[in-house]
Specification:
With 456 residues, the protein is mainly alpha-helical. The protein is 70% helix and 1% strand. 42% of the residues are buried.
Length: 456
C-alpha cells in the first residue's frame, strides 16, 4: 500500500526533525548555563550530545528527507506538484534556513571544542534559530493541506500559509520538539561514561526544564483540534476507529511522559537509568506517531482540502469521469495482463489501480477483499456507488456504471482466489441500478451532502 510507505517514513522523519529542533534549544540552554558558571559539566555533555544529534538527525534525517520526496513523488505527484507550485518561494525560503542550520551545525561539530563559550553560544543560537524557522515555513505548508482557509477563495498565498491551524500546529510542534530533545538527553546521560553520577543527575534535572512546557499540550491540542473543520474533527473523535485509536495512543503517551517529567524529574528529581530513558523515548515516538497519523488522516478524503482528493482527482474531474469513464484514456498496460480471465476483470483492475491503489491493497494491509468480505454482490455495488456516504472519509466513485461493475467483479475474482474461467456480467438492469445509485450519491464529498434517497 503506497500510502503506508509514505506514512511510516513520514512519522520517522518528523520525529528526527523535531529532535533536531529541540536539540538545538537544549544545547543552547546548556551552553548558556556553562558560560554563566552555573553548570560546568554542561560543556562536556553538549559536545557528546551534539555528536548524537549530527549522526542521528543530520545523517538519518537527511536520508529520510530525501526518501520523503522520492516516495511522495511516486505516491502522490499531483499533490506535491500543487504544493510546490503554490509555495515554491516559501519552500525556497525554508531551504535557506535549512542550509544555515546545517552550516552552523557542522561548524560547531568541527570547531566547537576550540572555541570560547561566547562563540559556541553564537553558533548554537544560530543553529537553533535556523532550525526553528525551518519548522515555521514547513508548518505553514503542511497545515495548509488540512485548512487552506481563504486560499480557496482567491488563491492568496499568505491566506493559505497563515491558515486556521497554523499557530496551534506551530506551538504544539515546538513543545513536542523540546520534549523529544529532553528525552533523548536523558538516554544519552544514562549511558555517558565521562560524567559522574552527581553530574548526570544535575544535567538531567536541567534537561527536564524543556519538558515543563508539556503542561500546555492539552490546551494546544484542544486549540488545534477545534481549529480543524468539523468533519475532520469527527474522524478523530470517533468517526474513524483507526484515527480515534491513534489519537488515544498519542494523547496517552504524551500524558505518561508529561506526568513522569513533572512529578518524577522536576518535582522529585529522580534519576533515570538506561531502561527508563529508552522507555520514555519510545513513548515520545509513540506520541509523535499518533499525532502525525491523526494530522494526515484528518484531511480525508482530501490531500489538499476541497481541492485534491486522496486519489489525486479534483472535485470537478469526478463529474467528468462519471460520464467519460476513469480509465478510458489510460494508456498503461496491466502487469501480468495474461492472468486476468476476461476484459471485464481487466477493466476492474485498471479502475482499482487508478482510484483505489494509493490507499488500499487487494488482499494485504487495508485490503479491499477483506473490507468487502462480508458484503453480497449487490451490497458491494451499492456501497461503492455511494462510497462517500458509505465511508465519508472516502472520495466519491469516479467512473461509469460499467467501470463500477468491473471493479466489483475484480474484487469478487480476487476473493474467489482467481478462478479461470470467470463469468462476465453486463446485465442492463444491474447497470441501470448502479446508475441510479451513482446519481443519488452525487459527486460532492459525503460530509457535505446526504444521498438523494434519504433527503427529506
Amino acid at each position: 500500500m503506497k500510502g503506508l510507505v509514505i506514512g511510516g517514513l513520514g512519522i520517522f522523519h518528523v520525529f528526527l526533525a523535531q529532535f533536531a529542533i529541540g536539540g538545538g534549544a537544549l544545547m543552547t540552554y546548556f551552553e548558556w548555563l556553562s558560560g554563566k558558571g552555573k553548570l560546568p559539566s554542561a560543556r562536556r555533555f553538549t559536545d557528546g550530545y551534539f555528536k548524537v544529534l549530527v549522526l542521528v538527525s543530520f545523517v538519518v534525517g537527511a536520508l529520510t528527507g530525501v526518501g520523503m520526496w522520492f516516495t511522495s513523488i511516486q505516491t502522490s505527484p499531483r499533490t506535491i506538484g500543487l504544493m510546490v507550485d503554490t509555495f515554491h518561494w516559501v519552500w525556497a525560503t525554508e531551504w535557506t534556513f535549512f542550509a544555515l542550520e546545517v552550516i552552523a551545525g557542522y561548524c560547531f561539530y568541527r570547531y566547537g571544542k576550540d572555541l570560547d563559550s561566547r562563540s559556541r553560544l553564537f553558533l548554537l543560537g544560530l543553529y537553533t534559530t535556523a532550525s526553528w524557522f525551518s519548522l515555521f515555513w514547513i508548518n505553514g505548508i503542511l497545515s495548509w493541506q488540512l485548512t487552506p482557509g481563504a486560499w480557496l477563495e482567491g488563491g492568496d498565498l499568505w491566506a493559505g500559509f497563515f491558515n486556521p491551524t497554523f499557530w496551534p500546529s506551530l506551538f504544539f510542534r515546538t513543545v513536542a520538539a523540546m520534549a523529544i530533545a529532553a528525552l533523548v538527553a536523558a538516554l544519552v546521560l544514562s549511558v555517558s561514561p565521562t560524567l559522574e553520577q552527581d553530574e548526570k543527575k544535575e544535567l538531567l534535572h536541567r534537561a527536564a526544564h524543556l519538558l515543563a512546557p508539556m503542561a500546555l499540550m492539552p490546551l494546544l491540542g484542544a486549540w488545534y483540534l477545534f481549529a480543524m473543520p468539523k468533519d475532520s474533527r469527527s474522524w478523530v473523535l470517533g468517526g474513524s476507529p483507526a484515527m480515534s485509536m491513534f489519537f488515544g495512543v498519542g494523547a496517552g503517551a504524551s500524558l505518561l511522559v508529561g506526568l513522569y517529567a513533572i512529578v518524577g524529574l522536576l518535582w522529585r528529581r529522580l534519576n533515570v537509568n538506561g531502561a527508563t530513558a529508552s522507555l520514555l523515548v519510545a513513548l515520545g515516538f509513540a506520541a509523535s506517531a499518533g499525532g502525525e497519523f491523526v494530522r494526515e488522516g484528518a484531511r480525508k478524503p482530501f490531500t489538499v482540502r476541497e481541492t485534491l482528493y486522496s486519489n489525486a482527482m479534483t472535485p470537478a474531474e469526478i463529474v467528468t469521469l462519471r460520464e467519460e469513464g476513469s480509465v478510458t484514456r489510460d494508456p498503461y498496460p496491466l502487469r501480468d495482463d495474461q492472468v486476468f480471465p476476461n476484459d471485464q476483470v481487466r477493466l476492474g483492475a485498471k479502475v482499482y489501480r487508478f482510484q483505489c491503489s494509493v490507499c488500499h491493497t487487494m488482499g494485504g494491509v487495508n485490503g479491499i477483499v477483506h473490507l468487502a468480505g462480508t458484503w453480497t454482490g449487490e451490497q458491494t455495488r451499492l456501497n461503492v456507488a455511494k462510497l462517500q456516504h458509505t465511508k465519508p472519509f472516502m472520495p466519491p466513485f469516479a467512473g461509469t456504471p460499467e467501470e463500477l461493475e468491473a471493479l466489483v467483479r475484480y474484487i469478487e475474482w480476487e476473493a474467489a482466489e482467481r478462478p479461470s474461467p470467470f463469468e462476465v456480467t453486463n446485465d442492463a438492469a444491474t447497470l441501470a441500478q448502479i446508475k441510479r445509485w451513482l446519481d443519488e450519491a452525487g459527486t460532492a464529498p459525503g460530509y457535505t451532502t446526504r444521498p438523494a434517497s434519504v433527503k427529506k
